[in-house]
Amino acid sequence: MLDLRQFAVLDAIARTGSLAAAARDLHYGQPTISHHLRALEQHLGTELVTRSATGAALTPAGELFLDHARAATTRLAVAEREVAELRDFGGTVLRIGTFESAGARLLPQVLAELGAGHTVQVELVEGEPLGLLEQLLDGSLHCALLYDLDGDTSVTDAALRQRTLEREPFRIMLGAEHPLAGNEVIDLADLADADWIRSRSVLEASERALLAAAGAAGFVPNTLLHSEDYSLVHAFVAANVGVALIVESAVDTRYRVVARPTVQDLGVRRVRFVATATPSPGQAGVLAHLEDLLIGAAGVE
Fold this sequence. Notes:
Order of helices and strands: HHHEEHEHEHEEEHEHEEEH
Structural class: alpha/beta
Number of helices: 9
Low-confidence stretches: none
Protein name: LysR family transcriptional regulator
Helix content: 40-55%
InterPro entries: LysR_HTH_N, LysR_subst-bd, WH-like_DNA-bd_sf, WH_DNA-bd_sf
Distance between the termini: 54 Å
Mean pLDDT: 89
Number of strands: 11
Radius of gyration: 25 Å
Pfam families: HTH_1 (PF00126), LysR_substrate (PF03466)
Keywords: DNA-binding, Transcription, Transcription regulation
Family: Belongs to the LysR transcriptional regulatory family.
């Protein structure tokens, strides 16, 4: 019979590289590690771990089983959390992923209308698209607002469904006193010598849009700093020490900055609502209502 402790032992051996190290990691005695491993191998009828003078390694069968064991363990953790939420709150709990700009603009009023804190218990998780997508796939989140570069391959995983909420073109953000700030349209080539505030990730939509547009204009952007902190980005741009790529809805009007289109195509940021395709019966109606409210808030026709 399978035992969750067997899964933990196999996982620890894979991570630490030996039975002794796995015992220390799990605070077990080494005989206990050997017992659980032997029981699992006997149940499956095959060797899962090979031992040598330098340690232990999983066999192909061990690697295969561990992939499934980790997925099962994740799902069980989600189930435990959802049962605890039902026990503690007695109603629907939604874990929603979001990112700063769209989350601050779309979610507050929508969640108020949804009944967050009253009829629905909401837990917000802020993060970047790839991290939020992973949490959607492993069941840690029920839904999320994600963004990408329009034209990217849409989510195709059968476990998820999506709806596009917004498409917004990228703009150049300049300080209000920048020499080009008065231009209605900017030629990106005129910023070839500018210092840019860029994303830390090469996978970030704005970073990919910038590199593509700058490359087409014949230059590689100089980097002032890498940052995802919008307050920091705005402060540097307002001081005229750097420029950045942004969408107009993310411009903070408290700073003396302007956002201008360019002669070149900078691309479009797409914002999507992505949710699990198979919600529990208690969550299905709430997710559908949340999606409708977001569609209304975003002005989707």
